[in-house]
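Sequence in, structure out.
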Amino acid sequence: MVFSNKYNQTIALPLTEIISNNKFFDYKAKYEGESQEVTPAEINQNISKKIKNTSIDIYKK
C-alpha cells in the first residue's frame, strides 16, 4: 500500500508475503485459515526496495 501523509510525503508500507497451504491462494486459504501472512515479506531487500519504488512511481502518476 502506498499513500501520502499530511506532510505530502509518499510512503510505501512494508511488503506482505502470503504463504498458502494450498496450491493456489483460494477462498479456503484466505478465509478458512489455510494461509499465513508474513510482514515484512521474507524476500531479497533489493527486490523489496525495487517493488516499493515502482509502487511509489505509479502512485505519483
